[in-house]
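In response to reviewer comment 3 from the previous cycle, which asked for concrete evidence that the modeling workflow produces usable outputs, we include below a single protein chain processed end to end. The sequence was submitted unchanged, and the resulting structure tokens are shown without manual editing.
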Amino acid sequence: MNNFVFYSPTEFVFGKDAEVMVGKLVKKYGAKKVLVLYGGGSVVKSGLLTRVEDSLTSEKVVYLSLGGVQPNPIDTKVYEGIDLCRKEKVDFILAIGGGSVIDTAKAIALGVPYQGNFWDFYNKGIKIESALKVATVLTIPAAGSEGSGNTVITKEEGSVKLGTGSPLLRPVFSVMNPLLTYTLPPFQTACGIADMMAHVMERYFSNTEGVEISNRLSEAVLLTIIKEAPVVMAEPINYDARANIMWAGTMAHNGTCGVGREEDWSTHFMEHELSALYNVTHGAGLAVMFPAWMTYLADFNPDMLAQYAVRVWGVPDGADKKTVALKGVEALKKFFSSIGLPVSFKELGAKEEDIDELVKRLHGHKGETIGSFKKLTKEDTRKIYQLAV
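The workflow returned the following structure tokens.
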């Protein structure tokens, strides 16, 4: 096990009607003026925005609102938010929504005190020294952004999708009410499930030895998702299944599953190019790319993949680790298909003829090699994209 520092300061307020606590929580964390950030009309139509605003008003918290954050969030909304926060002297951002809204809130939060272009943090790797406080009211379990310090934004010019992160961007609190997820469309629910599974697997597949506690925690989260996913798809108003999926999404990405080990993230990088080019849902792209990545890696490092197949999918162990590993990949693909997700380029709407462009963009953004489980060159990633076809 490697040395590590684990810091997860977010206060989680979980359960039915938890959103009525927002006003008191915002006040507790010293907000003077709040930007309430949200996405489309569902937050308005459901009455959630009104309930949150009423909670703020009851605590005499001054706020203003900004809507219109889109899936695969873009830089233009970030610039709009930064300008508004500076003009109105906002010191706290409350994101109501899923990962896209929360990631946008974090980008605005780091951009407000910065004298340059906020995009510098994404494409130049500049260290984040200060940021406004961020909090969340989660409506879509998927990205885990409610408990992480990470943010991913797409720059419209050139369709460049990049991420950055800092402990300063971890939300000070996150309100999580499983009832708010009852009306999610089945496909969006399924994409969230794939996203949270991928967050665990990016950490699980590692060459670091002596991390049994992290392995077992990762496996427990994956097994819970696999058990509850068919339930939420068949019974969308099953509270306990929704609650377990919601909390699993947080556990998948708050760092718990990755302590003491080197993480990979190459599959996420490869998917980012797909969603930047085709504007596909992130979780759907991951459902295509992860089985392809695992299939390719079975030739190079089958032991860890075989362990995953045995412990997570119940594949019988055997001497031929590659065969065991590939049975695990097939089990994952079957699972994704069973909840309505694509598992190939064709099903996703991606094109084989674009692979050279995907590879070019990927390594242009991330360097000559990506990942750590196996350092992937351009030739490697081209073959993985080809396997996804």
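Strands lie at 11-14, 33-38, 62-66, 92-97, 133-138, 150-155, 160-165, 173-176. We consider this sufficient to address the reviewer's concern, and the full set will be provided in the supplementary archive.
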